[in-house]
């Protein structure tokens, strides 16, 4: 992180991704899509038949919260370059 050329390139790439495929809404939509796919194909039910159950909707919500918080933190760090 001592190379200013690298930092500039990193910031440029991060900002491009955050305005596209890594937008918060896109990340959360992807989580919802995968979570629903796992429900629809019975994977969640099969998982709970074998393993100790957890609150699946809460786990999905926790993942979404983590992604929102982490990308916000990364935004604050990278845009400060």
Report on the structure:
- The structure is a single chain.
- By secondary structure, this protein is an all-alpha fold.
- The protein contains 4 helices and no strands.
- It has helices spanning 4-18, 24-40, 43-50, 56-78.
- α2 packs antiparallel against α4 (56-78).
- The longest helix is centred in the last third of the chain and has 23 residues, at 56-78.
- The protein is elongated and about 55 Å long.
- The model has no long low-confidence stretch (mean pLDDT 96).
Please summarize what this structure is.
The chain is mostly helical and 81 residues long.
Contiguous low-pLDDT stretches (5 residues minimum) are: none
SS elements, strand count: 0
Structural class designation: mainly alpha
Average residue-wise pLDDT? 96
Tally of alpha and pi helices: 4
> What form results from the Cα inertia axes?
elongated
Strand content: under 5%
Secondary-structure element pattern, one letter each:
HHHH
The radius of gyration computed from the alpha-carbon positions, rounded to a whole number of angstroms, is 17 Å
Describe the main β-sheet briefly: none
What's the helical proportion of residues?
over 70%
| N- to C-terminal distance | 10 Å
């Amino acid at each position: 992180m001592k190379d200013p050329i690298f930092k500039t390139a990193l910031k440029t790439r991060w900002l491009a991704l955050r305005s596209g495929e890594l937008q918060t809404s896109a990340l959360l939509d992807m989580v919802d899509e995968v979570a629903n796919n796992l429900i629809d194909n019975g994977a969640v039910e099969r998982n709970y038949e074998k393993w100790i159950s957890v609150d699946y909707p809460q786990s999905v919500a926790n993942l979404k919260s983590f992604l929102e918080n982490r990308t916000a933190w990364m935004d604050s760090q990278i845009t400060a370059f």
